[in-house]
Amino acid sequence: MNLNGRRQSGNVDDRRGRKMGKGVLGGGIGAVIIAALVAWISGGNPLDVLVSNGGALLSGQSAVETPYEPTAEEEELAVFSKQILAGTEDVWTEIFRQNGLEYEPPKLVLFTGSVQSGCGGATASTGPFYCSADQSVYIDLSFFSNMRRDIGADGDFAYAYVIAHEVGHHVQYLLGTLDKAHEQMSRLSQTEANKISVRLELQADFYAGVWAHHDNKMFNSIEPGDIDEAINAANKIGDDYLQKQAQGYTVPDAFNHGTSEQRARWLRRGLDTGNPASGDTFSPAYSQL
To answer: For 99-247, where are the alpha helices, taking DSSP H only?
Structure first.
């Protein structure tokens, strides 16, 4: 991506190096990258996601400041993440304005190891997530290294897609989509609730594409190969791909993020159209997503 001269968002809470004061409760999932990749795209209440995926929960913990020196690579990723967040602020502010709405950007929380959010506690193994309770996107930057090392999803545009996807959930929250979907999910069986979750995730992918479309128009940010990086990442985090990697077979009733084909297709639709109105993932029959 071409980010030369781009501003960095100041809407960032940098908690890197802070440690939680008490022990971790529950039976954590360590650093299993497949679980992390499943978790980051959940888009619902992160506390629910952590419980359902066996993530370690932190209870009654206080942050302890410790000296922290990020590596040069991590600091570069921090600057990159702040630039991408700034890009989402610029794009979505303008899109909302054009539709007579006011965009309130989410905060980006950078952390290492573990963190306490408005939706509960999380560890780095949870992966990036959006918490609507405090309207914040949480990310441990080591996740990007894990993407590259463990599943071969690499490149700055692939990393930008991760951030833009989580911001897409914030857009859903501001538009009322997220709360409405969660209310519906609370009244359904797990299988049917999973289908609503898929609709949420595919729309967040679409919104990530919408952001990229307009960011490129504003800043000429997309370079040759960038789109391929994002599409490759979308393919690598589909439910079917991740389940096959983890257990050798798929369980479609357990899909709650979308297949590789669906994720790549909705991301591409957002990239191609740039029109938020073209991202209705709730009206089509589930089989047509």
So the answer is: 142-146, 156-175, 177-185, 190-219, 226-236, 239-247
